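hey so u asked for the seq, here:
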Amino acid sequence: MTFLHSRRHFIKTTAAAAGAAVCRSLSFPGRVLSAQEPLKLGYLPITDATPLLVAYELGYFAHEGLTVERPVMVRSWKILTESFLAGKFNLTHMLFPIPVWMRFKQKIPVKVLAWDHTNGSAVTVRGDSKINTFKDLGGTQVAVPSWYSMHNLIMQLGLTTQGLTPVIRPQSAALAPHEVNLFILPPPDMPAALLGRKINAFIVADPFNALAQEKFKARIMRYSGDIWKNHPCCVIVTHDRLIQHRPAMVQKAVNAIVRAQTWCKANPRETAHLLSRDGAGYLPLPETVLNRVFTPPDAEELVHPHWDVARIGFQPFPFPSATRFIVDQMKQTRVEGDTAFLADLDAGRATQQLVDDTFVRQALDEMGGLATFGHSNLEKPFTREESVEIN
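ran it, structure tokens below
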């Protein structure tokens, strides 16, 4: 390896909700979804959800013979998690650390089926800010969307690598020059909070970085894919129960999602239009904002232009090396709430228990393999080395 959610009460409320759901047998309802019933999809209004939305809108689910209801938009990770636990959604996208927490802390049999996208996030600062690197964040207030998020993980990795100390305190508390205060802020509130100088920076999924650029002349300090090359962020998850009782249904759903990713990769402008309020209206933003997300960054915006990463990319295979890295980093990342479950969690065993790549492997075989998505390791196509570099 190269190594040079909702609000502050998210974990407490979600943990309580999860526990209550398990006690009421709501996390996995007793009745198994029949082969004739429609699949129900949930999503947050972020570009992380793109393949799910495209697969539905372009009829890829229907082409597989599946009946799928129009995806339902919710406003927070808390609501999405609770709805999934209650069986309101059979398939959804989630920030990768959330299913880790669900399976190993809350003992909920959730499975990761595939990556939904790669990269797709950024650290954003005001246009007039003197913050240009992680080192410049000392003594500042930084918003993240969830404690169990890739954003929190990447932010703290950047800070600690530069000798800074992440802390979790009230915003009114004094900070030493080497401390950075992290707190939860809903993504839609982040651009306005930055403009109003209530925060100094935020890290979140697009389109909120693009919105801040477009509307408030904010500046991208660092793209997440320029820190961890082609990293996973949101993943496709479902229940173990659905896999056990309706494997053919799961396979067809994954086929559609992989096909959607190939389309998104080949048609970035069309994807932006489809998602926007000028198109099918899945995201409440104009096409001009979303075009920023689906346009590659200029070389001068990047620390590693030779990595040739997209602002948001698409590659569905869940490389085990990335899952292991996430679990290991979660052990070193500060969050609110009890993290004792991570202490003895072996990254290798956790990867095997959490991820089921059977369906995505078959889908990729039918689509021409990982080479379709630019992966060039022909001898060992399902392995890669994680490249993480802060600078």
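Residues 20-119+231-373 form a domain with the D-Maltodextrin-Binding Protein; domain 2 fold (CATH 3.40.190.10). The mean pLDDT is 91.
lmk if thats what u needed
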